[in-house]
Amino acid sequence: MGETQSDQEDRTAKPPGTAEKPPGSAGRHPGRRALLIGGAVAAVGTAVLARDELSRLWWRVPGVEKPRTPGAVDFPGATWVAASSANYRRADRPDDYAIDRVVIHVTQGSYASAVKAFQDPGHQAAAHYIVRQRGDITQMIRELDVAFHAGNRSYNERSVGIEHEGFVERKSSFTDVMYTNSARLTAEICRRYGISVDREHVIGHVEVPGTDHTDPGRYWDWDRYMTLVRRAHRTAA
């Protein structure tokens, strides 16, 4: 299931390369020139950061954001059940963040428990979709938005997360209809964003850098799944 605290900013300690004061420098004050140069460098750095942030937020200007219809889904046939807004970040993908990954998860619980968790603002995690063992697909976050599901900010921003009802240690969790319908969903996501249908771009949660999760686990049949995804992708094309 999506990892909590997955979208926190990285925090760094003392900046590297900080030089020690030379002997006899105690009590000295930086000269005017040093202050001016240092201030200019800081201003340039701030400007670059501000420009990068603005490039991500341009769509927040009134009238620019893509239209949103309450209850609308990105995958035909999916049912909409909204996640808590605390478990994702509103965005305008792929215009502000390119999408180039699909991340496969397993809920480690029932469908109902996953929905409850994703609607809990204190959970701090949720995926875009849940696929049930009986094949039903529920969408809880729009693909436009950044779901907190991967435990890695960069991967959250670049991916769509799909949960699957069940347990990693139970092979019986992964039913025929679950594989088939999940593959159709992944194929459509890949088609929509021009994502390559291969194991570099369709990955398990365990393959996300920095994660401590193991899903979808050893019983998830990747060969079978990718064959179904490629077949569905060709059919759609």
From TrEMBL:
<keyword id="KW-0378">Hydrolase</keyword>
<dbReference type="InterPro" id="IPR036505">
    <property type="entry name" value="Amidase/PGRP_sf"/>
</dbReference>
<dbReference type="InterPro" id="IPR051206">
    <property type="entry name" value="NAMLAA_amidase_2"/>
</dbReference>
<protein>
    <recommendedName>
        <fullName>N-acetylmuramoyl-L-alanine amidase</fullName>
        <ecNumber>3.5.1.28</ecNumber>
    </recommendedName>
</protein>
<keyword id="KW-0961">Cell wall biogenesis/degradation</keyword>
<feature type="domain" description="N-acetylmuramoyl-L-alanine amidase">
    <location>
        <begin position="88"/>
        <end position="217"/>
    </location>
</feature>
<feature type="region of interest" description="Disordered">
    <location>
        <begin position="1"/>
        <end position="31"/>
    </location>
</feature>
<dbReference type="Pfam" id="PF01510">
    <property type="entry name" value="Amidase_2"/>
</dbReference>
<dbReference type="InterPro" id="IPR002502">
    <property type="entry name" value="Amidase_domain"/>
</dbReference>
